[in-house]
Design a protein that fits this description.
6 helices; alpha+beta
Length: 157
């Protein structure tokens, strides 16, 4: 059985979120996660100091641009904690642009959990760090993530 190789931008849509401004934060509503919260969720740490946006803002953004859904993959993209992946569960939230890269709409031959495990492998980590930009504040770009070539097995495996 042979594995295929594809660029992440060929097997998924790679993007970020719609920009949310501080003036749009509310005291309650839909959770608005930054890189910190995504790392905590991945590590199963209780979230504290959560920001929120209104349900109305969320609904408007979701209708125009989409929102994370179960099976999507978020990857931290800035600083010493870049390259940490999180597979979205059955949950409602929105997230900060620029700090997180969003992989969604995986084609039928690919699986976000497999990509998650590739990213957390030594090969994946080295690939991420070898393609960062910036020296004081390393970062990954959407275009860089789109170009990552990863091997993957047939979906039934």
């Amino acid at each position: 059985m042979s594995w295929k190789t594809a660029k992440l931008g060929e097997i998924s849509t790679v993007s970020s979120s719609k920009r949310i401004f501080a003036r749009q934060y509310t005291n309650k509503g839909v959770p608005f996660y930054r890189q910190k919260e995504i790392i905590d969720k991945k590590n199963k740490v209780e979230l504290t100091d959560i920001l929120y946006i209104s349900q109305e803002t969320y609904d408007e953004i979701k209708a125009k641009f989409g929102a994370p859904k179960k099976g999507d993959l978020l990857i931290t993209a800035v600083g010493v904690t870049l390259g940490i992946p999180y597979v979205v569960d059955d949950e409602t939230f929105y997230f900060k642009d620029g700090n997180l890269i969003w992989l969604r709409d995986f084609d039928e031959s690919a699986d976000s959990k497999f990509v998650y495990y590739w990213i957390t492998s030594e090969t994946g980590k080295k690939a991420m760090w070898s393609r960062t930009i910036g020296s004081a504040q390393p970062a990954l770009t959407i275009d860089t993530i789109k170009q990552f070539e990863i091997p993957y097995p047939p979906i039934e495996k």
